[in-house]
Amino acid sequence: MDELDLLKKQWQSREQDLPRLTYNDIYKMLLKKSSSIVKWIFIISIAELIFWTSLIFLLPDSYKQITNEMGIGDLILYSNIIHYCIFATFIFYFYKNYRSIKVTDNTQQLMRNILKTRKTVKYFVFYNIGMFILLSIIINIIYYTKSDRLYEVMKFGEQGVPKEDFVSVFLISEAIVIVLFVALLMLFYWLVYGLLLRRLNKNYKELKKIEL
Predict the structure, then answer these.
(1) pLDDT tens digits for 164-173?
(2) CA-to-CA distance for 182 and 200, rounded, in angstroms?
(3) Phi and psi (nearest 5°) for 134?
(4) How far apart are alpha carbons 94 and 91 in whole angstroms?
(5) What angle (nearest 5°) sits at the alpha carbon of residue 178, between those of residues 175 and 183?
(6) Less crowded by CB within 10 Å, the N or C end of the chain?
(7) pTM of structure
């Protein structure tokens, strides 16, 4: 039994010798818990931004050389700039949601802020997954249309891969990597943001109960 359930039990019990908790006591507890959850969403999103940014600097020079020789270096650069600008915008809204919830002074407003936060997180998750899939599709279409150049850049001939087979081998490998990465990304969001949203949703339901 968590702290809120214990407090609710004390509040609802008529046979308690301890002072009974009021509506305001329960509200303050829900406000505190909701504020803490949204704060963690904000912190985790910053950590995620730092993680993805650090990966860029860990990419091998061979990868950068291949993208430049295939003529998609600028595409990746500009898409990353746009992506991180949008990512930073979501972080700003997470912070704004946190500040809004922290200073909320009535139940109805807190419920609206919780719904707003849930919606922002869902858009954030859909955007990140969708952006990765879209960019991956665009890059692989370019690889396919420039397959002869890709064969030379990737040096498939030196690896003993026949020229007529390398496109299917490469694209199938890319498709497997993309599917696995998307699955891992969805698992991460479900475990981390999903857990926080479920807790936030629980608070929302509790607020509805005390509002009735």
Answers:
(1) 777 777 888 8
(2) 25
(3) -60, -50
(4) 5
(5) 125
(6) C
(7) 0.81
